[in-house]
Design a protein that fits this description.
Layout: H1 2-17, H2 24-37, H3 42-55, H4 60-76, E1 82-83, E2 86-87, H5 88-92, H6 98-111, E3 115-119, H7 125-137, E4 141-146, H8 149-162, E5 167-171, H9 174-183, E6 188-193, H10 199-209, E7 213-222, H11 228-239, E8 243-248, E9 252-257, E10 267-268
Helix pairs in contact: 2-3, 3-6, 4-7, 6-7, 9-10, 10-11
Length: 274
């Protein structure tokens, strides 16, 4: 009787071990992605697909680029050369990590912009991921803005080593260079804002880009919870009449905007842990 009881206990344990327990956070994430995919705008489904891809293995061609860029990051992460009073190693630590950089890559792979804009080159890791996506798409050019001359020079070396020749560099204060970048090219189809983590400048850049954006322009705002000011800026972007879709990824915000103001259907998500 005792041995039978033990046997049954073992069977019960083995049976329970086969049950896949899904964490509540994952259930919430899946439901929010489903809600995003179901909105009355096909771009919602495409954004949800990109976020699902972020959890899966990268396509082989993207994975090869990621491997090369991360190898270059590892080189920079141990470099003790000094630029502007800081080691390259220290500056490299501020670059976008692999996962959020991969998100940028996947967004460009999916939406295939001809004209893309980045505010905040740093030493070129995030721009490498974005430019690599354009290479794989076979179209498009990235314009990247950076205030530091030394950092943009290092980024150019990084991109040259990687064989990325589809990037235009503009050095100077964003308030000075952004108008020139916007007036010099086609309507902006994609913009990544990651250079000035303050409320007022962030809103100013949004308002400068918006009138010159293409319909359904993808805009990504980094570090939306960096500070109360950045959170306020994100809330203002979400509430703006030109914002059609706003996706809150906790640290990053993605918006789909139109250049005009109109009262159409709008959608914003609760935080999604991408």
């Amino acid at each position: 009787m005792l041995s039978t009881s033990k046997g049954l206990g073992r069977v019960a344990y083995n049976f329970c071990a086969r049950i896949h327990v899904v964490p509540a956070a994952r259930i919430g994430r899946q439901r929010r992605l489903q809600a995003l995919a179901a909105i009355n705008n096909p771009i919602g489904a495409r954004l949800a697909m990109v976020l699902q891809q972020l959890r899966a293995d990268e396509p082989d061609e993207s994975a090869r680029w990621s491997h090369r860029i991360e190898a270059k990051r590892r080189e920079l992460a141990v470099c003790r050369n000094v630029i502007e009073g800081q080691t390259v190693r220290h500056v490299c630590s501020a670059s976008k990590k692999q996962r959020p950089a991969t998100l940028l890559h996947l967004l460009i792979r999916e939406f295939k912009p001809q004209s893309a804009l980045e505010l905040g080159t740093c030493i070129g890791i995030s721009s490498a991921y974005q430019a690599a996506a354009m290479k794989l798409n076979g179209q498009g050019r990235l314009v990247t803005l950076e205030g530091s001359r030394s950092r943009i020079q290092l980024a150019q070396e990084v991109h040259q080593d990687l064989g990325l020749d589809n990037i235009t560099y503009i050095q100077g204060r964003f308030s000075d260079t952004l108008p020139h970048a916007l007036n010099a090219g086609e309507p902006v189809e994609y913009a990544f804002i990651d250079g000035h983590h303050q409320e007022k400048p962030t809103i100013e850049y949004f308002e400068m880009i918006r009138p010159l954006a293409a319909d359904n322009c993808i805009m990504i705002f980094d570090d939306i919870r960096w500070s109360p000011g950045m959170w306020s800026a994100w809330q203002q972007v979400v509430a703006h009449p030109s914002t059609r879709i706003a996706v809150d990824l906790v640290s990053v915000g993605i918006c789909v905007i139109t250049p005009t103001l109109h009262a159409g259907s709008r959608h914003s998500t609760a935080p999604i842990l991408a």
